[in-house]
Amino acid sequence: MSREHVTILGAGLAGSLLAIYLARRGYDVDVYEGRPDMRDTEIPAGRSINLALANRGIRALREVGLYQAVHDLLITMRGRMLHDVGGELSFQPYGKNDDEVIYSVSRGGLNELLLNTAQHQYGVNFHFQQRVMAADLGAGSVRMRDYDGDRQYVLEGSPVIAADGSGSIVRRQMSKLPGYRAREDYLDHAYKELTIPAAETGGHRIDANALHIWPRGDYMLIALPNLDGSFTVTLFLQRSGPDSFESLTTPEAVTEFFSREFPDTLELIPDLTTHFFENSTGSMVTVYCQPWRAGGRFLLIGDAAHSIVPFHGQGMNCAFEDCYELDRCLAEKGAPGPRGWERVFAEFETRRKPNADAIAAMALENYVEMRDTVRDPRFHLKKELAWELERRFPETFVPRYSLVMFHHVPYAEAQRRGVIQQEILDALIGDRASLDHIDYEIGGKLIAERLASHTRIATSG
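The structure corresponding to this sequence follows.
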């Protein structure tokens, strides 16, 4: 008997991992990608070349036996290294112990590993330079353009899973349906990538085991380590206004801005102005839409369904968790033909939509934290108290950041708990400037009253 066929649109991180999940379940998978094969093409300047990998993404990779292979691509980041204007450094660990860390990973290296595994181990068929032109949602067909042969053709006869990113053509086609709800919220801040090159010895010029942040209130600079000794540096800045991309139009303006706001980077980033104007300025968007599916014919996944801003380091992790959850839906519901796929797609959306909305909101909140709140002594006091409460009440009180990054609690549950936990922290600290005389007995009662009824925290596994 011939195997059931599935079409995936997009050979990025989500599409490539999903292809592996589906192929290992016995589906015949074809993946269509508008760009050239990245294994033969350099990533263009301005596109993020490294990302943060955390427990949710790690679980998805482990499920298909790839985490050990990915491990060689990782650099451990144990916390945030804050740089003030005077060049003073302060380190903020991510978690309460050495196990609670995140990892910097090469986007290209990880994507290549997924592509090679899907193609050579599981027989997935990849078709590059094949652009989606339109989708007929009723017929379940997709009109494609082959940029190699300069021709158009139609894909039909199999369920289509669109992993084609925040600009998904399939989603925009869905938005024309009666009653469809879709919104793209662009942040009024943009970003530009720069590079701190490796030292002459080949090592890193600054601490390699931290995510470096230069928080400046309304904007910030960050740097993530790469295996070759370099750092990918990203400037997040308003699009318009006095200090903005709109105002940085000359080499002199860029040099003055960095000299004033990030003076310790001038020696770290050679040819700053050259690269500043060579590299593109990127946009950041949060995508909200519903539904994510059209019967059993089309499904949106990853950024196509729920693109988020990058400030919680969860875009890739959330997309990988999508793949993991869709696989679970397939295992539980089965997909024998169109009606089976419709059940699977509906169950997947029911499980993931509330969590996608929750992480979208938390990512926006974390931008304020990274660029501004981290400078507030009260923020650090609350964080210290949260870790102490976690030590005393580990089954019921875990800080929201830890729930998101180091556990598998649903994002929506982490968000609900986070609100309650902040109220408890505020009540216990009051106007104190230290943790002296904190009443932990009252803290225990508040936690029992307000958090015990929620799902207990699973291990981070």
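The chain has a mean pLDDT of 94.
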